[in-house]
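Usage

Read records sequentially. Each one opens with the input sequence:
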Amino acid sequence: MKILQTPVRFYPFIGGVENYVYYLSKELARLKHDVTVICANEPNTKKEEDINGIKVKRLSYIGKIANTNITPKLPLEILKEDFDILHTHLPTPWSADWSAIISKIKNRPLILTYHNDIVGNGFANYIAKFYNATILKLLLRKANAIIITQSGYYDYSPSLKRYKDKIGVIPNGVDIERFKPLNVEKEENTLFFLSVLDEFHRYKGLDYLFEALKRVKKKIPNVRLIVGGKGKLLNYYKQKVISMDLRDNVEFVGFIPDEEIVEYYNKCDVFALPSISAKQEGFGIVLLEAMACEKPVVSTEIVGVAEDIKEGNAGKIIKPKDDEGLAEAIIEILEDKNLARKMGKNGRKLVEEKYTWEKIATNVLDAYEGLL
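and closes with the structure output:
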């Protein structure tokens, strides 16, 4: 099968959607399918290359609107491609919209993974509202099938309700061969948080994690939070840490190279993702990566894997924006090493049983074949 993927960006760019497309495409290529990715050239790298059997074509972009790269050559490049099915992604509209148009021109099925709603801050919020009220409706109508990564998104998203008849739930996955327990030296009472540090990712809840850390520090003075990621809000977060008297408890390590990320997961005692926006948090792939490394996790009830974490006793799930509950959950795990160990084992078992990319790719292929 010839599959064309059109994410706005692709590996080596690191992000939730980018990881989803990379690992899914890698598994599809391993299963002997012909996979091509067309995306923006960010970060600036080779314009054409083969990555693990995936043909990657990167296009120059003239700028960004909100978090979306504008690539003028995209329509022509999609038109030139020979494909059986076109798989595109939201919440970055430009690529998805042109994919819908070209798929109809070429009379090929379009499948859309709807990772989360399109929202914005400030002026970007007005753009998002206009898009949601107009072009998004056309895109959802044109898509032959829509994938969401958690069933709860039916309830969270105001845009999806009328398209339930063509929506299927296929969760995200994790590479359990890569993300696994390692024998590394650990520092006691260490938390790990990983995200892009910009306005578009404030919903990951780092502000609330700092508030919780202040509470944890009263009980566990040597607690330490490692913050991975970079972005325009890095200096804002650094100043906040200073103002909260947490300078000795927080370390900003910046962008973590792909080859080092598994070691960071393994060095921590607890991984935290206190997401606060159900509209923006589609799933939480980083939770799967942490659990695959046998780490207990603390997150909120809006993430896609929350119910499985609770049922499988792989960590603690709290309400969004509850820094007191977040602190209590962190303290409980840090103070009970046996509980932490048990949760870590349970998390690894959970991802092995339910969230391998082999299982996810098989389900996506079933969706493709159903359309063809």
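Summary fields computed downstream for this record:
- The mean pLDDT is 93.
- The domain at 2-173+356-371 is CATH 3.40.50.2000 (Rossmann fold).
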